[in-house]
């Protein structure tokens, strides 16, 4: 499973990259706007930190403009994956960009029917939003499971990226469901490390080691 960081914040990306487990980055207009830099500049900086797929989203709403914007974003760096929303125009732009060899991440997917459209348009990635479905009382992870099953039935190459993940449990469930990628905020990736028995066990190991091999200064 690939782990992506869902952030445009450079400090978070540097900290995550130092762990050696970050395979890529997803951004969206909200995350880019939060950093206050033009998208081209911010995305270029991100590409210098993480060597993997970096999703950059178009903000145009009509297919021809999305294609134009997508081509511009893709020209920034070889690792850029253009993100298009799951609208009629977004799917049209996805089909056109894919025909031109540009990799597209289709975002804002909330149903299996929508995921089928993305696969048929040749999307490189589909992004079902788990947490936002949970927020409205649907089981978001069921959508990930359905998409993985449907794509498997037909051999679609589109990768399933579990997005809008809010907890370590979401990450584990996405892995069990067979999603190829999980994107998560830095906070969630950081939480994946935690287990009280790890802390307790390490404390005991170091204590035992100290008792056996570090004689008190007075005795030396
Ligand atoms: C994914 O590409 C999106 O940027 C992201 O996962 C959305 O997450 P949110 O619902 O927590 O904003």
Protein topology:
Elements: E1 2-6, H1 10-18, E2 24-26, H2 29-35, H3 39-47, E3 53-57, H4 63-74, E4 80-85, H5 88-99, E5 104-109, H6 112-120, E6 125-128, H7 130-135, H8 140-154, E7 159-162, H9 168-177, E8 181-184, H10 186-191, H11 196-213
Parallel strand pairs: 1-2, 1-8, 2-3, 3-4, 4-5, 5-6, 6-7, 7-8
The protein binds erythose-4-phosphate (E4P).
Tell me what the structure shows.
The protein is of the alpha/beta class and 220 residues long. It has eleven helices and eight strands. The protein has helices at residues 10-18, 29-35, 39-47, 63-74, 88-99, 112-120, 130-135, 140-154, 168-177, 186-191, 196-213, and strands at 2-6, 24-26, 53-57, 80-85, 104-109, 125-128, 159-162, 181-184. Strands 1-2-3-4-5-6-7-8 form an eight-stranded parallel beta barrel, surrounded by six helices. α4 (63-74) links the parallel β3 (53-57) and β4 (80-85). α4 packs across α5 (88-99), α6 (112-120) runs parallel beside α8 and α8 packs parallel to α9 (168-177). The longest helix is centred in the C-terminal third of the chain and has 18 residues, at 196-213. The protein is globular. The chain starts with a strand and ends in a 7-residue tail after the last helix. The relative contact order is 0.12. The structure holds erythose-4-phosphate. Residues 6, 26, 28, 107, 127, 129, 131-132, 163-164, 183 line the site of erythose-4-phosphate (E4P).
């Amino acid at each position: 499973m690939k782990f992506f960081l869902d952030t445009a914040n450079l400090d978070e990306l540097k900290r995550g990259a130092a762990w050696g487990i970050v395979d890529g980055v997803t951004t969206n207009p909200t995350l880019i706007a939060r950093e206050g830099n033009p998208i081209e500049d911010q995305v270029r900086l991100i590409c210098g930190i993480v060597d993997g797929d970096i999703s950059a989203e178009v903000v145009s709403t009509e297919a021809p403009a999305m294609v134009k914007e997508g081509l511009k974003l893709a020209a920034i760096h070889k690792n850029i994956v253009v993100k298009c929303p799951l609208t009629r125009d977004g799917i049209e732009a996805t089909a056109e960009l894919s025909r031109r060899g540009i990799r597209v991440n289709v975002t804002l997917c909330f149903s299996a029917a929508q995921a089928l459209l993305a696969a048929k348009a040749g999307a490189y990635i589909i992004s079902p939003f788990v947490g936002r479905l949970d927020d409205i009382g649907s089981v978001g992870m069921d959508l990930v499971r359905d998409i993985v099953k449907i794509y498997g039935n037909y051999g679609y190459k589109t990768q399933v990226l579990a997005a809008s993940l809010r907890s370590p449990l979401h990450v584990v469930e996405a892995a069990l469901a067979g999603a190829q990628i999980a994107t998560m905020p830095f906070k969630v990736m950081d939480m994946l490390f935690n287990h009280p028995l790890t802390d307790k066990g390490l404390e005991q190991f170091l204590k035992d080691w100290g008792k056996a091999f570090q004689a008190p200064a007075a005795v030396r």
